[in-house]
Design brief:
Elements lengths: L5 E4 L2 E4 L1 E5 L2 H23 L4 H23 L1 E5 L2 E5 L5 E5 L5 E4 L5 E5 L2 E6 L6 H9 L4 E2 L1 H11 L1
């Protein structure tokens, strides 16, 4: 039995409900290194290590914890025409495909989504956002390359 949320288009099954997020194992990997570096930080405080070593371990611990939260919390969930975006800090925003004005590939391979001139979220180059881009193409929302975006930006000035 097929899921009622799926549609058949041109003989190809496409889902109208999907979630885009980072790989789960990356969250656990950064959390593991965060715990290890925090343990080293506590140990270096106990043995009264040099201040620069303590500050370095504090920085590493904070970076690892932030990366784990970013990867663990960030997601884009699409339900037909509605887009629910959850940021790194857990705030949830609702957008609609009708509001999106363009999508732009960056030089790094990341893909940014805009409403007007405001960027609403970015897919990193390691995320599979092909369903999202297919839906943008079906709705005739422009998807620009990086070089075309630069040309348009220069024209606007």
């Amino acid at each position: 039995m097929k899921n009622p949320r799926n549609q058949i288009q041109n003989g190809k099954e496409t889902s109208s409900h999907y979630t885009i997020r980072s790989e789960g194992y990356l969250c656990w990997l950064f959390a593991f290194f965060g715990v290890c570096s925090t343990g080293l930080l506590i140990y270096s405080i106990i043995i009264k290590e040099a201040l620069w070593a303590i500050l370095f371990l504090l920085l590493i611990s904070m970076v690892m914890a932030t990366a784990a939260f970013n990867i663990g919390l960030w997601k884009v969930e699409v339900n037909d025409m509605e887009i629910m975006y959850r940021s790194t800090f857990g705030s949830v925003r609702k957008y609609f495909f009708g509001d999106i004005t363009k999508g732009v590939y960056k030089k790094s391979g990341a893909f940014r989504v805009y409403i007007g001139e405001k960027r609403i979220f970015t897919f990193d180059d390691n995320m599979d956002n092909s369903l999202f881009i297919e839906q943008m193409n079906r709705l005739h929302i422009p998807v620009w390359s990086y070089s075309f975006f630069l040309k348009m930006k220069k024209k606007a000035k």
